[in-house]
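Running this now, will post back.
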Amino acid sequence: MSKTCFVIMGFGIKKNINLDLTYKQIIKPCIVQNNLVPYPLYRESEFNAFRCDEISGNTSIDYKFVTCLNGADIVIADISTMNVNAIYELGARHALKPRSTILLCAEDKKNIFKFFDLTYVPIIFYEHQGPYIDEKTINKTIDQLNVKINFAINSTTKLPDNPIQRALAENKFYEDKPLKPSNLYSLYVQGRAELDNNDYTAAEKTLLDLYDQDSSEENLILLALAKYKVAEQEQSCKKLIDCINLIKENTDVESSTSETLLGRLAAICLRVFNITQDEQFYYSALEYYRKGSNFSRLNLYCPRNYCALLCRVYEVTDDKNIIKEYFYTAKHFAKLYLNTNVEATVSGDYTQRVLFYARP
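Update: finished.
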C-alpha cells in the first residue's frame, strides 16, 4: 500500500527564492519515484494534493494542514525562506509525529539558520541560485531526498527523529541538582554579570557554553564582546581577527539590520587598525559604522563613531581633498542625527544610556 505524503513550504517566489522550482524539480519527482500519494483529506481523490496551497475546497486551511500533518506517513518540509507558517507547521508535525519528517533548506541560508532545537535534526542543504537551480544540484538533491524517503518508508526503528518526541520519550525527572548554572537564562545572567564585572575570561567561557546551546544572534554578540575584551587586554591581533571571523562565519553580515552587531564588528576592526595601522581595517570599521548608522535607534553609537572615524582619515591618507571630503561628510552626517530621538533616553537599559550620553 502506498505511503501518504504532505509537503510543508511556501509557494511562488519568496525572499528571491523560487520555491516552485524546488517543489517541481526536486520534491515532486521524488514523490512520484517513491509512489507516494497525497493524504486523503477528501473522499474524491482528485481534490487531494501534496501541498496545502494546491488543496481545493472551502474547508479552513487550519483544518487542512493540521489533518494532513497528523495523518501523513511522510512530511517533507522546505524551510529555505524561514516562512513563519512553514516553521509553525514543522513544529506542529514534530509535536504530532515522532518520525518521518524530512527537512530541506537552501545552502546560503545556513548561516542564518539559528533554530537550536533543530541542531541535531538531519537537514538536506542544497544550492539554490534564486531564480534557478542547476541540473547538478537537482540530481544530487533528488538522490539525497530519495535516500531519506526510502528510510522513512522501510525503516522499522522506533526512535524519534525530532527533539520534541525525544524529550517526551524520555519522560523522566532530573533529580540531581546541577553543580553550576546550566539552563539558558542562568548562563545568560551569569555571562552578563561577568561582563559587567570586567571578568572577561570567565565571561568568554560562560557565553561560549550559552552559544553552544542557543546560537542566537544576541548570544553571538555577547560572546564576541567577551572574546574582543580578552583579545584587547592581551593586545592580540590574532584573537581580534578571530572575533571578526566568528561574527562573519555565523551571521549574514551583508544583509544584517542589527546596529549592535554592525557596531560590535566595527569596534573590533577599529581596534585591529589602532594596533596595526593596516588601512583595510580602518575602511572596514568605517563601513560597518556607516551601515549600523542606518539602523540606529538606541543610542547613536554607530553614527557618533562613524563621524569620529571619518575625521581620522588623515591617518591613512595625505590627500587633502579626501581629508576635506571626509570632514564635510562627517559634519553633514552629524547634523542628520543631531535632533534624533532615540530609545535610550526614555526606555534604554543602563548600557544603552551610557553609550548615548558618552562622548566619542
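Strands lie at 4-8, 13-14, 17-18, 37-38, 74-78, 101-106, 123-126. More later if anyone needs it.
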